[in-house]
Amino acid sequence: MCKHVLNAQVQIRSPCCQQWFDCPQCHAEQRPDHELQKTTEMVFGCKKCKKVFRKDMSVFEEADEFCPRCDNHFVIPAKTPQMGIGIEGDDEKLLKDHRDPRAVKRSLLQPQA
What we know:
This protein has 113 residues and is mostly beta strands. Helices cover 10% and strands 15% of the residues. It has helices at 24-30, 92-95, and strands at residues 10-13, 20-21, 41-46, 52-56.
């Protein structure tokens, strides 16, 4: 599983070392002894149907964005890991404290007067 592209749909076979990687950064981390060789014909492995197929990248068309066996759309915007803390959702009730600030503060440890 790739830590750089969270929604990788295919693996790419590296033409230089004949190993499978999810992205070029994974190749650079796992094989620092050489650079990724560039080529126009790429070999992909679909993660959905587990089938291997080739694509000629010099004549890449919109129809080539899908796996030829299972029709999985593998050319999608990459989701990368994001640092930060936040609230998911758009519910306004999560963002605002609706309690009355003038209300008497009570505690479980102190008895009420």
